[in-house]
Design the sequence.
């Protein structure tokens, strides 16, 4: 107990006349308490007295192998409402003390705890230290002459008289029963989305953490690669966001996605947690259907499966962290239903945008990677005389002006006589990127009536090169959509339409696309020991890896001459550059991190250096 508190108590006991006789049936008692798992709990200390009480000291012991104390306070008790003016708490090894004087400040109005039974005078807060598979019981017990310096006794002060156990004060210990918690559960809520090629919807990830407050979690969910595309993983609007998560990593794959979260990751380490609860919304997975489904076809139901050791690089398990321990919750799959939509109208033209990059990676790309945006159409029963295509795209993409091509398209085969396109890649005007394409098949004499033929299969209209800017955010879909009322580089606002029987048809289906930026391994050529510089140590590392089995993190970095093979020649090449004015190691070079511009059979780097 601190010096000031002891001085005040000495003063109180000295000035009061010690003539009060001991009263009968006076007691301090600790309520019996129960909890589950690592859930925090609070035990209440109650006073039963025959006369008014001016102050008290509590000294309570506990088993520190089972309980961890967090607070000893009068907040929320009957004493707080009366108005205690001096409160001193100490949490010690295996015990705690609490000293309270109600009236210590002018104008000395004589506050005291009135006589009565069951008056709450303290709240003692604890958390269990460890889990048990069977119920455990431990005591919270009053202990005189053990805790603090000098050691304190449990007393009450009445009429200036200190009354303790030897004076007839009854000390009634309490018990804490710690029961095993129900199993934690991670489940995916069922959801549904229109199978129209454009709509997306959210599947909520729900956590029931009965074992205790969650300090972090990992979620790994798989889905049918042919049926769904995972567009985004988000914490927006979740309890994870509201409590203030400080570290989060989301990764999207063709067959699933993972998210890892640590609630309290940075100073001042305020101890953020997701409290115990049932079906708490901790993350959101956003999906879209891969195929358009028209009635009377049936809806398509796809399982969203939380699965351990399958999704991620390396594969991750679904876990929550409670009390610093990894807990493996039970896993409950959900479903995503792709809802069949009404068939298109009589003019059932479908215009589709598709994106393809050099590697067989669907719509996933690296920073700086260039792919092909293709515009395709299908219409099983109409002959199309012309079309206007107006497209908006994310500002972190660049459509390469002058790369529009009809090569291999039905438009080239038929022989369109008027073609015009423009790209407005300037987003500084507050608009997104815009592309406008106009095609008229028969525009010149002798007016032979060329049209695009009816087709149930998608046919290529044209394509243009698209590049992912370095500013693009990783694991976020960069949208490319058909949009109306844009002016490109001009002043006339245009919209999507096809010309059928000399009529402008605007009510037809349009399917946009997107690009998801994924991390790309980057390195310095020649930095074989991965210390972010190229010097003689890297030549030594190359030799040791070849002849002594020294492990390396990035084979491409050790391939100094970029011949796709790690051998002694790479060490010689690096030393020639360092000391004999030899050629500089090829791109990305020895000075700046960058991706490997060449294709080889070397293993993927494991250095955790990426472009994201």
Sequence:
């Amino acid at each position: 107990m601190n010096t000031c508190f002891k001085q005040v108590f000495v003063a109180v006991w000295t000035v009061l006349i010690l003539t009060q006789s001991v009263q009968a049936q006076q007691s301090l008692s600790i309520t019996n308490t129960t909890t589950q798992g690592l859930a925090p709990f609070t035990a209440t200390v109650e006073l039963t007295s025959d006369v008014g009480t001016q102050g008290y000291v509590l000294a309570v012991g506990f088993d520190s192998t089972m309980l961890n104390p967090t607070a000893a306070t009068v907040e929320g008790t009957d004493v707080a409402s009366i108005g205690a003016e001096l409160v001193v708490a100490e949490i010690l090894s295996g015990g705690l003390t609490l000293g309270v004087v109600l009236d210590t400040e002018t104008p000395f109005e004589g506050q005291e705890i009135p006589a009565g039974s069951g008056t709450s005078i303290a709240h003692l807060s604890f958390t269990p230290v460890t889990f048990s598979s069977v119920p455990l019981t431990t005591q919270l017990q009053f202990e005189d002459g053990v805790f603090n310096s000098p050691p304190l006794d449990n007393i009450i002060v009445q009429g200036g008289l200190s009354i303790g156990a030897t004076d007839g004060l009854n000390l009634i210990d309490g018990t804490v029963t710690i029961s095993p918690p129900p199993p934690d559960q991670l489940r995916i809520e069922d959801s549904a989305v229109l199978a129209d090629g454009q709509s997306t919807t959210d599947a909520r990830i729900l956590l029931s953490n009965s074992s205790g407050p969650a300090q972090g979690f990992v979620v790994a969910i798989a889905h049918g690669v042919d049926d769904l595309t995972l567009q985004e993983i988000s914490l927006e609007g979740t309890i994870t966001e509201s409590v203030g998560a400080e570290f989060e990593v989301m990764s999207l794959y063709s067959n699933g996605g993972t998210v890892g979260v640590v609630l309290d990751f940075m100073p001042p380490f305020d101890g953020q947690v997701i409290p115990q609860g049932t079906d708490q919304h901790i993350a959101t997975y956003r999906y879209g259907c891969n195929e358009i489904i028209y009635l009377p076809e049936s809806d398509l139901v796809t399982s969203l499966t939380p699965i351990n050791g399958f999704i991620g690089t390396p594969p991750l398990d679904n876990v929550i962290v409670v009390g610093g321990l990894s807990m493996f919750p039970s896993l409950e799959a959900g479903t995503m239903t792709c809802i069949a939509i009404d068939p298109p109208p009589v003019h059932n033209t479908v215009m589709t945008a598709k994106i393809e990059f050099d590697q067989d990676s669907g719509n996933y790309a690296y920073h700086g990677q260039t792919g092909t945006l293709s515009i395709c159409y299908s219409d099983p029963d109409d002959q199309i005389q012309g079309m206007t295509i107006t497209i908006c795209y994310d500002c972190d993409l660049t459509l390469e002006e002058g790369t529009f091509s009809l090569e291999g398209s039905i438009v080239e085969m038929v022989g369109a006589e008027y073609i015009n396109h423009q790209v407005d890649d300037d987003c500084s005007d507050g608009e997104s990127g815009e592309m406008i394409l106009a095609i008229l098949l028969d525009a010149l004499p002798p007016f032979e009536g060329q049209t695009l033929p009816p087709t149930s299969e998608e046919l290529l209209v044209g394509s243009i090169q698209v590049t992912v800017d370095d500013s693009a955010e990783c694991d976020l879909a960069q949208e490319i959509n058909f949009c109306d009322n844009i002016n490109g580089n001009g002043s006339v606002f245009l919209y999507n339409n096809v010309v059928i029987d000399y009529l402008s048809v605007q009510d037809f289906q349009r399917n946009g696309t997107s690009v998801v930026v994924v991390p790309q391994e980057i390195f310095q050529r020649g930095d074989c020991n991965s210390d972010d510089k190229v010097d003689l140590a890297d030549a030594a590392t190359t030799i040791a890896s070849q002849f002594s089995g020294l492990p390396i993190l990035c084979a491409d970095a050790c391939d100094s001459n970029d011949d796709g093979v790690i051998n002694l020649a790479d060490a010689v090449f690096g030393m020639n550059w360092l000391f004999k004015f030899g050629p500089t190691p090829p791109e990305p070079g020895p000075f700046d991190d960058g991706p490997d511009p060449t294709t080889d059979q070397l293993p993927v780097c494991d250095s955790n250096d990426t472009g994201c």
Remarks:
- Residues 1-24 have pLDDT under 50 and may be disordered.
- Residues 3-179 form a domain with the Immunoglobulin-like fold (CATH 2.60.40.680).
- The chain is about 10% helix and 40% strand.
